Amino acid sequence: MMKQLTWKDLPIGGTVVEPGNARRNLTGSWRTERPVIDQDACIRCRICWMYCPEPAILELKKPYATKAGKRYDLTYEIDYDHCKGCGICAHECPVKAIKMVPEVTG
Amino acid sequence: MAVAKALSTREEVVKERVGLTSNYAAAYAVKTVDVDVIAAYPITPQTTIIEKLAEFVANGEIDAEYIPVESEHSALSAVVGAAATGARVFTATSAQGLEFMHEVLYIASGLRLPIVMAAPGRALSAPISIHGDYQDIMSARDSGWVIMIASSAQEVYDSIIMAYRIAEDNRVLLPVMVSYDGFLMSHTTEPVELYHEEYVRKFTPRNLNRPRLDPRKPMTIGVIASPDWYYEIKYQAINALKESKNVIKETHNEFNKAFGTNYDIVEKYMLDDADYVLITYGGASSGNAKEAARRARERGLRAGVLRLRLFRPFPTDEVVSAIKYSKVVAVVDRALSPGNTYEGPVFNDVVSALYNKGINKPVISVVHGISQRTMLSDDFYNLYKKLDEYAKTGEYPRKTIFIGLRGGEA
């Protein structure tokens, strides 16, 4: 187990001397429900990507072909390390392609 | 002021002897230490400090940025920002202005920023009063700042120089407030000996050693701390304040050596064999109290005065050892702690200091000079006589005595 830091070990005044370390603060554990994207229903409108406050929607240059034969260059995926499960993406999605699924089942 | 053994150095360091108000003395001290950023908003009775500083900056006498702000909240926020980059900063305020700064007071101490502020004390509204007492300073008491209370214009000048050294010390890194009587000191002229710049700069070298904002080396100051870390960071700051007492004493000693002065964190007047001791702070009260002690001695009462020069951190050991052998102690407060068992804020500090050392002795809480109600040395002389009466009868008042209150207490 990691040694617990004490008040003596903290940088003075709670200063964060290492830039960009919030990346290591994984907020995914806060989640009670996870968003799941239905890639076939998704129309690549980017609205979820815009509204996500974390931001935990990843815009990937990954081609995808739907069952109906429509081809996309982009794929949107969720960064589950940082998604807090707020549900804004699911609420905003105009085609209801995002479902909130309980994190723990049974 | 100058002690005999150090007079030779005093002659060397003193550039000129001029007449200055305590406010001007504060401005001259800031000029001599070479600050980088000044931000302040005018408020009575502080205004003349920053007017003088604005004049210095406008005339090119100080190479500093003067930030005209729209409020005290902004003034302290601006110096917080500047201090975070490692700049040497100054601001000043009083009363409602200090209250308006209140939330930023905690930010300055929580972020451990070496800010120096002059704060002539003033009564708080309502009713509106521009006159002097120490209510504003008492309200800032728990904000984690080092608080010094000076009693002469010379001491204001010297204390601000010392304040930079204390604030920037690696073991402290806390904001320092130098307070003194509003109007009675801030607006009255006294002789002040100004020092040659090179001696002051030698005493306040720029060797600030703390993380600072720098675009070439990104970092974050003022982050959110979740419940699992706020407590520790806060403790770090209060521990630094507690420990700062040694640094403050050390700084006083070094200042005395360098400038031929005789400062200590408490000032003792005729205390060695005193039966009756008045504990006071600030200029007017200590001056008149000393005069009263002298008169009481002439009439056979062994009277003495203990003046608090350092208010936070509270000089517990020094206060207790100074009053240990006295019969009766009265703490004269120029501020109120309404609703407390006793209404004198410093009285409560003194009692808790005595309790800490296991000493139980009669201590009387006295309030006087609220909103600059005139405190005559007669009042203090009569207080000594009262202390003598109490000691003879063995009956001590169990509530705060409000001297000079028209109609008496309820």
Can you offer a commentary on this structure?
The complex is a heterodimer of chains A (106) and B (410). Chain A is mostly beta strands. Chain A has a domain at 37-102: 2-Layer Sandwich (Alpha-Beta Plaits), CATH 3.30.70. Chain A contains two helices and six strands. In chain A, the strands form three sheets. In chain A, strands 1-6 form a two-stranded antiparallel ribbon. A two-stranded antiparallel sheet of chain A has the order 2-5. In chain A, a hairpin with a 5-residue loop joins strand 3 (64-65) and strand 4. The longest helix of chain A is centred in the middle third of the chain and has 5 residues, at 47-51. Chain A is elongated, with a radius of gyration of 18 Å. The two termini of chain A are 31 Å apart. With 410 residues, chain B is an alpha/beta fold. Chain B has two domains: 11-259, 3-Layer(aba) Sandwich (Rossmann fold), CATH 3.40.50; 266-402, 3-Layer(aba) Sandwich (Rossmann fold). Chain B is built from 14 helices and 15 strands. A seven-stranded mixed β-sheet of chain B has the order 3-2-4-5-7-6-12, sandwiched between helices. In chain B, strands 9-11-10-13-14-15 form a six-stranded mixed β-sheet, with helices on both faces. In chain B, strands 1-8 form a two-stranded antiparallel ribbon. In chain B, helix 2 packs parallel to helix 3 (47-58), helix 4 runs parallel beside helix 6 and helix 12 packs across helix 13. The longest helix of chain B is centred in the middle third of the chain and has 30 residues, at 230-259. Chains A and B meet through loops of A and helix 10 of B.
